[in-house]
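Consider the following input, taken from an annotated entry for Outer membrane lipoprotein-sorting protein (Hymenobacter psychrotolerans DSM 18569).
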Amino acid sequence: MKKYLALLALSVSLVSAASAQQDPKAAKILDQMSAKYQAMKAFRANFTQTLENDATKVKENMSGDITVSGQKFRLKISGQEVINNGKTVWTYMKSENEVNISEAETDDQEISPSQIYTLYKKGYKYAYVQEAKEGGEAVDVIELTPEDRNNQIFKVRLKVGKVDKAVKSWQMFKKNGNRYTFKINKFVPNAPVDATTFNFDKAKYKGVKVIDLR
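Applying the prediction step yields:
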């Protein structure tokens, strides 16, 4: 499950207050971006994820869909559905018609889908890189570097729209040579959610095998 949580992506929860070590230009953009997402009750995004490793000549593409509200999320990708209500995580595998239940845990070396707009606030240094174009739209490129040198992620590169301050795409670079790119294809702000959105309803999955790992 961690594989898919890490893949998301970008995803995908950017900070303690900007200090003298942080790039003030990047801080301003990140704060504007973060405020935009935190002002929403929820949002939904359709995305494309690409895994590349130049050394092993790997290139894999996946499409996914995610709904996020605060620290809660519901992710669908590659035949799996991951539902996290902040306390409990359900990981449903369609091919096996099986769901694993576990407690929600925080791993500082993983990036959950609900972290992408607040990631920079704790444990990362950030710097403005350049202005670029993405899909014909002007974006600001910002790099985040984890303060923990043992983190298997050594860099995260965000592209934020200059006008709307929305995250357009991001890349996650890992020490094993894997590079994950997440591109937002469709974004729905203030997507409708209710009490059932972030909980697994066994009745909707006929014959599902339940494995409780708690």
